[in-house]
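Sample pair:
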Amino acid sequence: LMRDALTAKLGRRVVIGVPSRGEKRMLVEQAAKNARESLGRRMSETATQGKLLHGLAEAFDLDGPPQRIEIYDNSHIQGAHAVGAMVVAGPEGWLKSSYRKFNIKGDKITPGDDFGMMKEGLDRRFARLMKEDPDRKGDQWPDLLLIDGGPGQVSASEAALADLGVDGVTIIGVAKGTERDAGKEVFYRKGLPPKALPFRDPVLYFTQRLRDEAHRFAIGTHRAKRAKATTATPLDDVPGVGAARQRALLAHFGSAKAVTRAGLADLKAVEGISSQLAEQIYGFFNADG
């Protein structure tokens, strides 16, 4: 390809030398072998993914193999540090650049309200999507949503999309069976009876992988949010006070609590804190004084 491109550009035949023997020749041959094997694996994976998408369409009576599947899950501990997560898959496999996380912050959601959390995540996802591509001309619109949960989660998801005026997106809930064992999942789709797939069905394994990836991403996002919360200080909320100025204030006063109680003159004495910023910090913690 490189030779052909140079030939076209220069208008004459270009000969690129290839070592005929020795270590360099072996390196060239190994590189070519690696490239062929990589291409072969990629083509095989794509073909397998295509078969699974066709199987998914047949199993759940879809109009055709989905081109973009979005899988949603929530994670929290007794309602604390709640997050929503979305992972995406298509004919080429995982689309990790399209993964999204949602910090759940609805005032009307009670702790542990999985339905409310799912609805908030979908509200934010599709409200933004409708704003960015209302005519659905791009490739960011999903044709299938997989939701971790049963009929309640599916109903909440249907309501979220209906409130936004979104139609034409199929929603399927993936719920664990009565014994919560992998392989006994029950699938829910509006207008159809609950459905289970044969234990060794490749489509069953495929949906498990999709659900598990969303769960993994949600758990990771939740842990990161929880870890950040454990190291948070009142200084995080002060405009204009970044990491470097926080370190300067903590080094001078010894603790964040001492900073909140510091007088204006003391704040102005901190190296790296201007008079204007000192007044801003003092005003932030003494707004009612």
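Strands lie at 69-77, 80-90, 93-94, 100-103, 144-148, 170-175, 186-189.
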